[in-house]
Specification:
It comes from Streptomyces durmitorensis. This is ABC transporter substrate-binding protein. Residues 212-224 have a biased composition (Basic and acidic residues). By secondary structure, the protein is an alpha+beta fold. The chain is 22% helix and 17% strand. Strand 6 (179-183) and strand 7 (186-190) form a beta hairpin.
Length: 575
């Protein structure tokens, strides 16, 4: 899930949801798991009501408009997709598994044609059968301008996708001809380039089946037709209050991933983060069986919780594919000189940065751009070893070689948002570390929207700024390609290739990896590419966030995967 106001909501929810979004993502897996019991026999039991306390409303509850990772959290209770994330703890949860489809898809013609077969017996909440035509129509809806907001990949990957305007403007009635449905259970996708990671993309909610006869356009979100274990019975204030109850036609036989223990899900959003943590901590009434999917414990709250054994036992720890880093614009002096970029890389004090991000419980130091998880292809490297406290001596040597023997003065742009990522605390830690190397750092703090507009503008991008990125799925592809593929440089729009790298060898390797349908083999290639790109010092990886979230005292069967980094509510029991 991409981190920007334009492309990714998913990471924000993961740091979010991420969902994801979002604020999408992220390692070793959860450290604090409670596989506790709810029933008299010591196993999770069906029944009861799960309350979800969130900051951000679940707006645009339409599968076409959602930007999710692995199908999202609350959305995946209602929307099933061709594939989904594996609902297991830690690294195992980074795997993609079949959902509506019988397998991960069959690839042919060098990963440009993907064929899926739907399972038998799939039904909507009204008992009508789910067909391949419904999956095709659900995807086509996501191309409609009035239903925008979802992931952009289908528009880029499907033949003719860049010209298709959605079913409401399609006078031919044929829809996207690059999606074929030869029978009610078969759907075939024709891509304009090899994409070995198509099974990951098929977890996005745009692959949710939508019956054409029930489509109400922009009003569909008020009561989307469920293909999952729960149906929407109430949607108030655009997702601020969602009430979900069991879908009587959902069958666990066709869906081994979602456990669906509670009888009812009550989602309450628009709450202050401190209020959410206070309610989860107290655990009174319905809050005893409550969770959050988007609110972390902050440093002060975590310190309080850690001192209370009962509360500490109710903290879930998760990792999500997400990296916070310093970004250079080599078009701006003095960052056009690799030695200056290397000097700053050596001078960074990651210990102080981690402390500024909330401490070692909430952040892990990073020396690689890719997150340190196997699914991303993590390959250990540290091209400019700064140690724990920085290496100002080596930095000064490089500055002297670059003609700055008396040091230099630079500007670091950051957001004023108190997010412990791109905020003043992190910027000040960088400023203090670089001062030891003879580098004077002037801080330019911007309001969050102004910051995002500036750092994503090819024309206005500053020379040095704090940045972050989260993956739309656990692979090196959606991590490296948007940031380092020269063909993705956007001159008149939201640009994410901050270093303006356009290296043919890098672009070609991205294409070669995309041809691979062996995801493990692809992961190793992504890791090697990360190491190669890292030599150019276009970024300085700083840290990977760790997510700490409270859950109610009556909540059992906690599962936190490395795909999302947060508690999976499809697994939770409250009785």
């Amino acid at each position: 899930m991409r981190q920007s106001s334009v492309i990714a909501r998913r990471v924000a929810a993961a740091s979010v949801s991420l969902v994801l979004a979002a604020g999408a993502a992220a390692c070793a897996g959860p450290e604090d798991n409670d596989a506790g019991s709810g029933g008299a026999d010591g196993k999770p039991a069906k029944g009861g009501t799960l309350t979800v306390l969130n900051s951000d409303p679940q707006v645009d509850f339409d599968p076409a408009r959602l930007y999710t990772s692995g199908g999202g959290n609350v959305p995946s209770l209602v929307f099933r997709t061709l594939t989904t994330r594996n609902r297991e703890d830690g690294a195992k949860g980074s795997e993609v598994v079949p959902d509506l489809a019988t397998d991960l898809g069959k690839s042919s013609k060098n990963a440009t044609v993907w064929t899926y077969t739907l399972k038998k017996g799939l039904k909507y909440e009204d008992g009508s059968p789910i067909t391949s035509a419904d999956v095709k129509y659900g995807i086509e809806r996501s191309f409609a301008g009035e239903l925008s907001g979802g992931a952009p990949y289908l528009r880029d990957w499907l033949i003719g996708g860049d010209k298709y305007a959605g079913p409401y403007k399609d006078k031919s009635g044929k829809g996207l001809e690059s999606i074929e449905t030869p029978d009610e259970r078969t759907i075939v996708f024709h891509l304009n380039k090899p994409e070995g990671e198509f099974p990951y993309l098929a977890t996005q909610t745009q692959f949710t089946p939508v019956p054409k006869s029930k489509d109400k356009g922009t009003k569909y979100e008020e009561h989307p037709i469920s293909s999952g274990p729960y149906k929407v019975v109430k949607n108030e204030n655009d997702g601020e209050r969602l009430t979900l109850e069991r879908n009587p036609h959902w069958s666990a036989k066709t869906d081994p991933e979602r456990k669906a223990y509670p009888d009812k899900i009550d989602v309450r959003s628009g709450l202050n983060s401190s209020v959410i943590n206070q309610r989860l901590s107290a655990g009174q009434g319905a809050d005893a069986a409550a969770v959050t999917t988007d609110t972390n414990l902050g440093p002060a709250e975590l310190a309080k919780v850690t001192g209370d054994k009962a509360l500490a036992s109710r903290v879930g720890t998760g990792h999500f594919g997400y990296t916070n880093y310093l970004a250079f614009n080599p078009k701006v002096k003095p960052f056009d000189d690799p030695k200056v970029r290397q000097a700053i890389s050596y001078a960074v004090d990651r210990s102080s940065v981690v402390n500024a991000a909330g401490g070692s419980s909430l952040a892990e130091p990073a020396t690689t751009y890719l997150p340190n998880q196997k699914s991303f292809g993590y390959t250990k490297y540290d091209h400019f070893p700064a140690g724990k406290a920085g290496n100002p001596k080596k930095a000064k040597e490089l500055l002297k070689e670059a003609g700055h023997k008396d040091g230099l003065t630079i500007t670091l742009t950051h957001s004023n948002a108190k997010d412990f990522e791109t905020s003043p605390e992190i910027a000040t830690a960088i400023q203090d570390a670089l001062k030891k190397a003879g580098i004077t750092v002037k801080l330019e703090g911007l309001e969050d929207n102004d910051y995002k507009d500036k750092v994503h503008s090819a024309k206005d991008e500053p020379g040095l700024f704090l940045a972050h990125w989260g993956a739309d799925w656990p692979s090196g592809g959606p991590f490296l390609a948007p940031i380092f593929d020269g063909r993705q440089i956007v001159k008149d729009g939201a640009n994410f290739n901050t270093g303006f790298l356009d290296d043919k060898s890098v672009n070609d390797e991205i294409d070669e990896i995309n041809k691979l349908t062996d995801l493990d083999a692809a992961a190793k290639r992504w890791g090697a590419l990360d190491k190669k790109i890292g030599e150019q010092a276009l970024t300085v990886p700083l840290f990977h966030p760790v997510y700490k979230r409270l859950y109610g005292k009556d909540v059992k069967n906690i599962v936190i995967s490395d795909w999302t980094g947060v508690l999976d509510i499809s697994q939770v029991a409250v009785k």
